[in-house]
Write the structure tokens for this entry.
Amino acid sequence: MIAEVIVDIAHSDVDKIFDYVCDNTVKAGMRVAVPFGRSTATGFVVRVKETSVYPADKLRAIYRTEDDIPAINAECLALAEKISARYRCPMALSLRLFLPAEMRTGKVSRNFREYARLSGDLPPISPRAKAQLACVAYLEEHGEAPLAELREKFSSAVNALIKSGAVAVEKRRMLRVPYKSAEGEEERHVLTPAQRGAVETIQRTEKTVSLIHGVTGSGKTEIYLTLIAAALREGKTAIFLVPEISLTPQMFMKLRGRFGSEVAILHSGLSAGERFDEWERLRLGEAKIAVGARSAVFAPIENIGCIVIDEEHDGSYCSEASPRYNTFDVALLRAKHNGCKLVLGSATPAVDTYRRAMSGEFELITLPDRINARPMPKVDIVDMRREVRRGNATPFSIALREKLKACLDGGNQAIIFLNRRGYAQTVMCRDCGNVVKCKSCDVALTYHSDEDCLKCHYCGARYRPLSACPACGGTHIHYMGTGTQRVVGELKKLFPAARILRMDVDTTSGKEGHYKILKQFADRGADILVGTQMVAKGHDFPSVTLVGILDADMSLHFPDYRSGERTFQLITQVAGRSGRAGAEGEVVLQTYDPENYILRFAADYDYRGFYAHEIGMREAMMFPPFVKVVRVMVTGEDERETLEALRSVYGKLQRVYAAHEEDFLFFNRMHSPIKRIQNKFRYQVLMRMTQNGPLREVYAAVAEERQKNVLVYVEENPSNLS
Ligand code: ADP
Ligand code: ZN
């Protein structure tokens, strides 16, 4: 037999199929060790065939297989090929998406545990060997026991029994199960008519994709769970994608409570061993539901009955490493391959998604009301310019302070949301206006009071706080902006008795970091949760009746065509944390731009109004989804090499441009807005092209670039133009 092998080396020079002689135990999807040049390489078998076009004496044999059952199933092999073709990346890179990283590096061990039981024939035991007799009696009573436990109880007698053949030992694989503490109790609801209608529509429609546009608290989760349960009843499997599983412990508990160990969780916060074991449970069919962030879309399962993408608008569904796949596109391929439904859900669908639903491409299901007709929290817009004029220099308006007091007095919880982190944001010299920047990244530094240092959020570099301006020597150094720490500090002054939790990138490091903070808040271990974007995600805290949004307009000023959409989404999501249970919820939205239409639509929960306005503007300004923004990034440590690579790729792209000029609205090369990040120079070729523009040619041009020390890659509609 002949195995077609892709060697696991991500370089386009070796991105082709190599034939190796193999025996009939080798199957497509297995990893194998093969001779490669003068060394040994790991490879993936993509196909097994009878004969090769190469003469037999030219072929080498594989050394061994690394798996007893294929690591990558047939569907996933085909999918890897499509991904490689679409994003012009070596097959090795696409195939890696389907394996847990620890499997490739071989750093993870399988856990085994030894069990002892009596073997069939019991040789005679001397009546003087009391311990041996006791051990035999113990095993007779218990059937079997972990070997370690027996050793502890009967010490060396155990070994004697094993030696005499009285006791047999068996090694068993132990799969580590993460989040043991999350074993939740089952919570199940009778579906409301709206929920039932949604389930039926999704099951009945001819369309593969359904979009559930349901306000926060409309019970979307229960719909997903019903669909997943139905898939399982048919003997099928399911994939459930969430933006970041560590941010939604309740979601995970709900799943565990309902489906028990049939749920496997895949995410980066797990230990290597746990992650590997969860993946194995899926591959072996022990678990049937893969839950996780975007990479869970590559779960090693077959016979998929349902794929769910919760919070489909979330930016985390776009990969930031090569291949820069879009999770929706991959999920759609899998749904079509399996003939199953793909369900998207959001209170604030991406403009692009909603447009496709409106056009009839997706089934659109609208849930305009919360469960039990609970009202949406009322949003109070506060003009912060007035507060400043009145001499209020704190981050809290008078209205917010009063409402916070009432909320806490009533024994309820509050969330304070702000769009930044650190004590104070940028550091500016008031004498000359100089903003202090990172030497290697060229972005503004942030002051952190707990460590009394300035930090670069892009590379983590630390600098000593300044006493004088490095540009002019002036001494009027001003710390601008408000960070979570300062907000917590001010809150403590205003409400000394309140228990306050802070959640941002600084406090959530480590495994289960988010989870612990959120659990503590959910268990009412605190009264106020202060945090950045992370607190906006889909949490369900029944006692939260007040949400304060500080500087709501902050995110409007990002240099991104989606900043309006992002702001609308953030505000709606964070407002939706308020008043989810009995008591009515309130939201205070503080802004320096109270007339802003995005904020107005958000305060009125008017998604349709927002959409109509936004889509009109996108069309007028020629932004996605009407065109494609395509950026080719060129980054490297050496400025000269980087510039050379830029020149080379730019030349190729220019030829693409010249051949398709009518498809381009914009074509230009420049420094990227942040010139350096982590000591790497960054240049870009920015393009805007029609939807049918020559995207494939752009990928092809970039794939030809093979400089050693310079990275060149394509981004489609990049979410961040820094
Ligand atoms: P969404 O995901 O749309 O924001 P959730 O699924 O979190 O909404 O549901 C909001 C709340 O309503 C949750 O506390 C959930 O337990 C509850 N809930 C969902 N469906 C029902 C139902 N059919 N009957 C009663 N309560 C429900
Ligand atoms: Zn830096």
